[in-house]
Design goal:
The chain has about 140 residues and is an all-alpha fold. Helix content is about 60%, strand content about 0%. The chain contains seven helices and no strands. Helix 1 runs parallel beside helix 2 and helix 2 runs antiparallel to helix 3.
């Protein structure tokens, strides 16, 4: 089991915002969970604002600013939001089980929205780039 799942939604979101979450606990799945929590509690716009700020602070505290990727961060939030609008799940675990591509095929899912490789783009790392194939 992922370590972040040992925490309640409130504990997980709070530890992340304070920068006290164990870095090894912040996996891809944890990133999706953070988006799910923020969208559920604050809506899409504030989720994007809050998560970007918190994630920049999180990696800065670790001295790993080069790990932050603006486009992937926003794209993940947008993807979670899209699937949430089609979900009946009341928990993150039920949600991620309902839409396994978010966890298992995330790269392919995101690549379907772009005509270029955002994963290796320096510009996409620094600034959010809108999808140019399919909007979120």
């Amino acid at each position: 089991m992922e370590k972040h799942l040992e925490l309640t939604d409130a504990e997980f979101a709070n530890q992340f915002s304070l920068g006290t979450l164990t870095p090894s606990s912040f996996t891809h799945e944890a990133h999706l969970r953070l988006a799910w929590i923020h969208i559920k509690e604050h809506g899409l716009h504030l989720a994007k604002v809050n998560i970007q700020l918190q994630l920049k602070n999180f990696v800065a505290n670790l001295g790993a600013q080069d790990k932050y990727h603006a486009t992937l961060t926003v794209a993940a939030i947008e993807a979670v939001h899209h699937f949430m609008s089609h979900s009946k799940a009341s928990s993150f675990l039920a949600f991620i089980e309902e839409f396994p591509p978010l966890k298992e095929n995330f790269k392919d899912l995101i690549n379907s929205h772009y005509s270029f490789d955002i994963f290796s783009s320096k510009e996409a790392r620094k600034t959010y780039l809108e999808p140019d194939v399919i909007p979120f």
